[in-house]
Amino acid sequence: MKDEPTNTSRRDLFRLASLAAAGLGLAQADPPQRSGAASMAEVKFQAHDAVRMGFIGVGGRGSSLISNFSAIPQVQVKALCDVVPDKVTRAQNRLAKAGKPSPTAYTNGDHAYEEMVKRDDLDLVIVATPWIWHVPMAVAAMKAGKHVGVEVPAARTIEDCWALVDTSESTRRHCMQLENCCYGENELLVWNLVKAGVLGELMHGACAYNHDLRSILFSNEGEGLWRRFEHLNRNGNLYPTHGLGPVAHYMDINRGDRFDYMVSMSSLSVSLQAYRKQHLKPDDPRQKEIYREGDLNVSLIHTVKGRVIRLEHNVSSPQPYDRINLIAGTKGIFRDYPPRIYVDGSAKEDFGPLDPYKKEFEHPYWKQVGELARELGGHGGMDFVMAYRLIQTMMQGEPPDIDVYDAASWSAPGPLSEASVANGSAPMKFPDFKRGKA
């Protein structure tokens, strides 16, 4: 709904972020099991001839998603919602330039999305807004009878993770986390390697979101208007899913294995302070902000099957972009950034390139639409492959690749890491969001 909040909305964002942090989702990491409706795991979409879509939030990320989804011939963009009318107008003009009908605009305040989701001509609603709005918007869309794709992280507290699961089950509508990194060319190729047994039985993985966002966090537009607030009252892994999603896929999390518990610790907080001292004027009010978020957060996740995942988060320090993307088994290991692989018995006891495996293990999605994906852009093409695959599952009446249990499980390290850090790196149990169901 909003990429650039109004002044009033900025105050609300700060207030809500503070209230959420005060609770920290610490009440109980694993609340009593709730009785719910039937599981949504492997539930198929009703097959569609066309997919009618509405978008909440048409700023930088939302606009990119509109471009990727609207490039699919069977997609019809029916409605756009944002609190900044000019952003909706720009998105409408881009669609018109591409020969698409102009969607209806919803721009009347923070809750205009509630009117949009009531439409009877929407099959799928996309939520691409500041994080604190993800759950209320996704819940509203599902209660209005719409499937929903929500940007990452899907939720910021354990209670909100449960809210997504409970609502999806009770409404029989899917809630899919839009984790584009699961659809990267290397990630899908390695997923094929893993499934073929090339790396043997899996033992451990590593993943991260290590990305220098200092200039974005202090920007006077876009994410700079809200994302820095997350650093004021939280201390943990604020953004776990880009690295964790692909590793969870390799390990069949929620499809044979499950996250069991995690421990977490954070470094001191100094990098944002050093950056603002160098780049902001001395009288800038942001100079007085106090950040609780440590520059580096490191977590260890233990799965029910005994696998271990190392998870990192660092958006405050000068560094090259790195998601690590490591997966290791009894026969070999793959590491990304740069991509390299070692398989037991190789003539040379050193990492080798991934390219020789491409001919046999390139994923069909990239064979089918890789050229168009690269042309459209969006994180190397993975954004379009994600959009293509989601629409394909809806057209063909298949279950989604990433369901509400993934959305909850992959988002849960956010609040669980905060709880662990706040309690001296104590172990924190993951809720069983599937309630023991297959």
Main-sheet strand order equals 13-12-11-7-10-9-8-14
Helix content: 25-40%
Ends apart, CA distance between termini? 35 Å
What is the number of E strands? 14
Residue ranges: pLDDT <50 for 5 or more in a row?
1-33
| Rg on CA atoms, Å | 21 Å
Mean pLDDT rating: 93
Structural write-up:
- By secondary structure, this protein is of the alpha/beta class.
- The chain has 16 helices and 14 strands.
- Helix 5 links the parallel strand 4 and strand 5.
- The longest helix has 17 residues, at 7-23.
What is the strand and helix layout of this fold?
Blueprint: H1 7-23, E1 51-56, H2 60-70, E2 75-81, H3 85-97, E3 104-106, H4 112-116, E4 124-127, H5 134-143, E5 147-150, H6 158-171, E6 175-177, H7 185-195, E7 202-210, H8 214-217, H9 230-233, H10 241-250, E8 259-266, H11 271-279, E9 297-303, E10 308-314, E11 326-329, E12 332-335, E13 340-343, H12 358-361, H13 364-376, H14 382-396, H15 404-411, H16 413-422, E14 428-429
Parallel strand pairs: 1-2, 1-4, 2-3, 4-5, 5-6, 7-10
Antiparallel strand pairs: 7-11, 8-9, 8-14, 9-10, 11-12, 12-13
Helix pairs in contact: 2-14, 5-6, 6-15, 13-14
Concise account of the structure shown:
By secondary structure, the chain is α/β, with parallel strands linked by helices.
Question: Which descriptors apply to this entry?
Answer:
about 450 residues; alpha/beta; 8-stranded mixed β-sheet; 6-stranded parallel β-sheet; 16 helices; about 15% strand; globular; disordered N terminus
